[in-house]
Amino acid sequence: MSLLPEWAKDYSRRILAQDGAAALIVTLMLIPQSLAYAMLAGLPPQAGLYASILPLIIYALSGSSRTLSVGPVAVLSLMTAATLGQLSLQGVHYTDGALALALLSGGWLLLFGLFRLGFVAHFISHSVMSGFISASAVLITLSQLRHLLGIQLEGALWQLPVVLVAQSEAIPPATLGVSVISLIALLWARAGLKGLLLRIMSPASATAVVRLMPALVVMSAIVLSVQLDLESAGVAVVQSVPAGLPVLSWPEWHHLPWRELVLPSLLLGLVGFVESVSIGQTLAARRRQRIRPNRELIGLGLANLSAGVSGGMPVTGGFARSVVNFDAGAQTPAAGIYAAFGITLAGLWFAPWLSNLPQAVLAATIVVSVLGLFDWRHFGHTWRYSRADFSALCVTFIVTLTAGVEIGLVSGILVSLLLHLYHSHKPHWAEVGRIAGTEHFRNRLRHRVELNERLLCLRIDESLYFANAGELEEVIATLVSQRPGLRHLVLQCTAVNRIDASALDSLLMINERLRLAGICFHLAEVKGPVMDRLERSELLRQLSGKVYLTLFQAWQELGGS
Amino acid sequence: MSLLPEWAKDYSRRILAQDGAAALIVTLMLIPQSLAYAMLAGLPPQAGLYASILPLIIYALSGSSRTLSVGPVAVLSLMTAATLGQLSLQGVHYTDGALALALLSGGWLLLFGLFRLGFVAHFISHSVMSGFISASAVLITLSQLRHLLGIQLEGALWQLPVVLVAQSEAIPPATLGVSVISLIALLWARAGLKGLLLRIMSPASATAVVRLMPALVVMSAIVLSVQLDLESAGVAVVQSVPAGLPVLSWPEWHHLPWRELVLPSLLLGLVGFVESVSIGQTLAARRRQRIRPNRELIGLGLANLSAGVSGGMPVTGGFARSVVNFDAGAQTPAAGIYAAFGITLAGLWFAPWLSNLPQAVLAATIVVSVLGLFDWRHFGHTWRYSRADFSALCVTFIVTLTAGVEIGLVSGILVSLLLHLYHSHKPHWAEVGRIAGTEHFRNRLRHRVELNERLLCLRIDESLYFANAGELEEVIATLVSQRPGLRHLVLQCTAVNRIDASALDSLLMINERLRLAGICFHLAEVKGPVMDRLERSELLRQLSGKVYLTLFQAWQELGGS
Question: Complex ipTM, two decimals?
Fold first, then answer.
């Protein structure tokens, strides 16, 4: 294995130019985004910038996606704010808490990557993720209201309208003006501008220009803020940002409530991973490349660890900027490294200017960028497609909104697991009979088949495991109690891909109960791998009947006809 | 629906005689058992007797098994002791805690029964249950050492040998003598006596006599204790039992830590239910009867509620006494009602004598009765059959033994769920090709088949749901990245019984990614119910390809050959 990543081996001047151009656009887009998400997380602005430097370089060297752009994202920033807010950390302990979250979630991801445990992310079903993201979009929007309106908003969700009305007179008109103008500019950039641009340039260029609008709005806002001295007109501005590079440091361990951060950091890491992999796969597929989930876990894990030691905040692959990077023609992860340098330079030169930026402008960029996250159409689709998934979606959405992000996500995961277990605990089964004159056996309820009162043939359409083993026992008990003349029962195992130890116990139990009732228990059409396993068990020795290769053989031998 | 239970309608004198005889034997067996399990739970002896009166009557009228005998059982008594011990309740609050546990677990079971949620019990796989029961048997045995040896034993599990050696000189010889004699008598009754009896009587009678040995040992011990004045020889005796009937009462709500009892009572209820249903099904099957799990939940729930208001302790169907009841010829639940009257009479007449019973004798009956619970052979079988189930078994066993019953059970459940998800997250799939000259398609790795580089046919052998949807995306991404000439991909859905919303999203994503890569995505052989559902989704509208009835049609139309 070479020390250099694969893409570095044939790195040409042409690729350098493409990567460089993409990096320039991504840098301009990342600056306002980084500042905004730091504000959303309740952190000083430089945390967002620092999280967009070292993590980008580390991910470029260790991740598996060629075009994913990592950095702070809206949902993780919200989760960071929610976790740290709950622990009521203050000042330097708050920023240390964010670093600790990045370190711990990085540790989790690295651990999962090294032990190839990426499958744990599958615990979060799409419905749960969708409900969670939609609720996050609402929570994020609400959290920005105080910056947009320039007032203090406190209290629970349902008290919000009352508080808003009560405080409506305290809203500073200048702040409101800045918010409205920024929102209109940003929304128009999304809705109207692209149509205009498409007439004069390619779709890729149009997308890039649209994505640069937040940077343009932020820069214009800074200029106007200085010119009009908005701060003295009552418009809150960003706190001053120290110019310079991040320093490698370590959070103050002994002041932090580590135990309380373990579960949140796990959830944060998983949510980030699920989001990032989904984006990475979509982009990779367009160029028929692929990403490797375990390698992604390691890349994202190391990126978060590096964010944690360089004054940053939790990071993952972001949707908007990855798409921009891809559309702008980035060919290799080197584009990420160039963007990191871009942010560093911006941090050095641009930082002093930031103290003139109105908070309302950043809040407007946040609100506009999370608008697309609220996926209301998904609610409708899921309702029509599956009530079970819809319940998981709604539980996650409602609990996240009312009780908090962690408990919302965990409830969603539990509900979807419960529903899955509920669905698979009743395997489909059919009493089958022979289609006269053939070797075929079909469901007696759907076809005209030959049956025999001494012989019952049962087909089970699911792998047998702990969640449905008990049901099989019951189905057989019911069928047997209805058939006084029964002498033989044959279980047709065509669809059984796996039999776990619980199901094996159930089969032993069924065999024993049938034996006590004077009925022979047979198996038919057991698949190869399942049979290999059964041969290591007691079942074949204890079985009161035989194992038949085909159901037809059993039918003939047991006197079906 | 009649108010009388079904069996009461044609209740004859013959059935009365059979039920009465069974009730007599069960009563004699229940008395020592009830006292012993009350001691195990750390409760006064009458709690065990009271738990064997009202709950038996209530279960007889509401349960669905004809021969199940409910009452205190070893594992629930251990769980009660562990829960209440952790909360460090004292005196009357301790007994109130046991009543609260019975009430809450009864409430849970009733709730599950009314809402038909019995499937939640499937969360506890056989391996987890087996590991839990085995660990419980060890914990129960160890907990009785202090009664058997008449010394105080404190400290953790690994300190036990040291403590034992240190205190060996403090063991009262008389207590040790009583313990050894009782253990020998009880063990001989199990091992040697039955062989002797079988020569002179029927197996059923022999079993009944063997089961009565504990009662005989207890009665002999009382007589000898009085004759030899064992108490003054340093042998600890049972505290005095008030003669009389249980009084309906209610635990002192406001002194109890209700919140801390919620999870333990849920686990206690589920463990009791799983045990009871397994016994009930085995017994019912012998007479080709059946039990209804939701009705059982209601029966056991009401039984526990009645135990909670009549000075009892948590109850469920016990294995040993249900078998005795069955073997002694009980025909209907009326036998349980007669046994309840038997216990009542015994409580009235026998109670004053109990204060002469050495605790060591009760401890010996406990130890001998739980010997059979430690299922060491199951460890070997599970190891050979499935490493995944073996890990769940061992985690449950070790954590229960070292960290406590609740956390042990919960860890086991989580590990088995994780392992299940791990197993089902990688569905079996095969690239299939046509067997020349036929309409059959088979795995290219196992058969000589025709393939086509423009057309890829993929068979997936599992229902698609959130745990394996991501894997399918990856499999397809990998296959596509290896085949530059690919134009069509057909997914053969023969084995797909269900597609949940997560999997639907994955299919939409796959369709979109393939479209971007210039590949048409088709489905073939979709089952009826799955197709019904897909028709309510966007997939069929967005699909870049078609849905074919058979894979052969797709092969022909897409130019496979």
Answer: 0.71
